[in-house]
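Let's practice the habit of predicting before peeking. Look at the sequence and jot down your guess about where helices and strands might fall. Then scroll down.
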Amino acid sequence: MAARPGVRLAALVAAVATLALTSLVVAPPAGAADPVDYRQTKTLTREHVAADGTTTTVDSREVTVQVDRTQSLRGRERIHVSWSGARPSAGRSADPYGFNGMNQEYPVVILQCRGVDDASAPEAERLSPETCWTSTYLQRYAAGVVSAGVWRHDRYASDEDRADQETLPDWPAECGLLPGSVFAQHLLPFEAASGTVYPSCSNTTIAPESAIDAALPPADIAAFTNLDGTGDVQFEMRTSTENESLGCSSEVPCTLVVIPIMGLSCLDADAACTQTGDFAPGSSNLSDVGVDDAVSPRFWWSESNWRNRFSVPLSFALPPDACDVLDSRAPVGMYGSELLNQASLQWAPAYCLRADRFKFQHNRMPESAALRLLGTGDAVAAFVSDAARSSAVDLAYAPTAVTGFGVAFVADLPDNAGEVTQLRMTPRLLAKLLTQSYPATNDVRAHEGLENNPLALNTDPEFIDLNPGLSTVAAEAKATILSLSEASDVMTAVTAYIAADPEAMAFLGGEPDPWGMRVNPSYQDIEMPREDWPMLDTYVRESTRECEQLIRSPYLGLVAAPVNSLRKISEAVLDAWPNVQTQCTRSTTTDPWKFGRIARQNYGVRFMLGLVSLGDAERYGLRTAELRTDGTGAGATFVAPSVATMSTAVAQATQPAAGKPFTLDRASLDPAGYPGTMIVSTAARVSGLTAADAGHVAQFIRTATTEGQVSGPGNGQLPDGFVPIASTGPTAALYAAAQQAASTIEAQKGPAVAPPITPATVPLGTATGSVAVRPPAPRSGGVPVGGTPQTVDGLPAPGSDDVEAAASSGTTVAQESGAGGTAVKATLGLALAGVLGAPLLRSLATRRRAS
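Done guessing? Here is the structure:
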């Protein structure tokens, strides 16, 4: 059950201690196959009892379920669940999530539940159907004519489940009574973490987070099984932050329940109970007509189905505010790149839980603003990918993380054929999207220069040639890519990728593409690369809508509607909820009109693109597009983010001088290298810091580039979406430069003189593994410049035996950041952590997401 506020500190300490003592797991060797955290095979049967008492087996299958990640999970993280040997689904729903997935036959129901599936555990901590989360009461309450009460014929059901509802002494009064001779009812209350029991028989008796139109889309799913018995899905985790009633946290154990629906086993020859389905295997139920209840997911809680469950134990990471709860020390704030967010979340507890380290805090803000804070002395360190363009004080840059940007997408194939798992993009296509060169609607063809352009990306012949078989129905959200509204080194890298491509630059210069499409005149000859992307189009659409007649806003700006955080973009793609702001809204008929966000896209017709960090893409299970790196047409080369492709890119990174950040020239990048690769450096002054601040920064760099580079989901480890930096191999130059910079920053004697470091070369094909995108089939708010920074938990520190002392030099700092980026691969040893000054040895499992 959920911890009371008064005992939360003790519970957190206990949780940390338990993790430290029970998580001693040896990491797999480099190059080993991606492991899974859970795998189990069961024989599942459907059996009916005849009048003479004999039992007949009508179906039996060997089903295997596996899950890629079960440990140190975070809110809204998606894990990959796959299975084989199940009965193929029939009458597949147009939307398998929540109540929408109930009208189909033989799906696999997947639910997140509180408790452990262990009969020896205290009763209050045990898993039961009552502790499983469903998004609506309709998945918990059944009512109908007696002949439709198939659960009453379940051979494994309890006497209470078979009984007439009016005979039950604890039937809730708010759920009403129906004549038992005519109607059958069944109630499955929900037991919240707080101990509150919600009857769950109506919209007024459910837990507060449960509703058809809830703040978050449903995570519970009745997933499809293919004709060959296999299936897979990405399942979204919800912690107590997202769902307080469910209450999963580092203190409250939970379980993922996977139930392959085989059909009810019947105690008699009841016609409704023994049904085998109306739909053919592999068919769709797009009209959402009724199905055979006995083989539907409606009665997942019925004992015939529940006994076939696979119970996958889950553990959750410490909450984002753990350091604030456990460590009363003032934080040492470091500012800058959002690319580091997911690493910072895992790194922070490895600092604050040790008395011999400092309390680290990552405050996300534009890199140029963070550099200004260094110049004014208001920050001790900044996370940046590009060097400052102008100087104010001397700085040293320590390579700290290798990650990058991705073009995330969510898209569905026509005719309920599933999700799009691969997408290809060119620099010119990105340029078209950013420059608002798609009209989005027919009435915007009156816009000068856009008259003959395709309405949206999915109707563009260039895109169709690369991505055949997708829907060609245009929509506003398909005419844009959700991007950043503020300055960022990510935008510098994206626009540098575009600027390195002759076709894209010719398009931006006014030359039409081979199909006649032209750049929006508002963006012709825009300077590239650049750290920000302006909204330059001023066209106001003529419309009969009253709101558009009263509010004269540039229409294509409303379609683009950029946001100030990569995290917001990732969550928008995760929810398939475009940020297009063309919905006219007002509270009452007398209130003024305003433009608001359009609705979430429906499952089956989704299509949305967003610019994301690779760390966010991995946490949220987002697919990212392959980006073109060389050639045109059928002979072009497209590259997805991976350890191999990012290592190839980072091997070409150069350091112009000692202490400077490594840069990546995308115009001369090896075609096998991923062009979205970026290197995040920790920049700090080399003179003028206090000894304490200089020591904190040096400690941070040394720890972050040693134990902080051990891949895994645990405290102090490096999350997926990052390529580890090591003292040997293709990242050796980055590692050496980081130690050199740490020594110079710690000494505070001004820039040291040292020769530039030449990065090691990496033979193509030597780096293996995957990062950033977990293919399911193939698998923090922002601040304006000068505003209050968004706090994000952050990182680990003292150097290991592998840390080398090396003289590093400084460079000059200051007003804005310019261009650069890189990436690489590595492996490293054990992470140390402690609880409130009592260091405990811990080595958390290194896991890669299932591919």
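How did you do? Confidence is low (pLDDT under 50) at residues 1-10, 12-33, 753-851.
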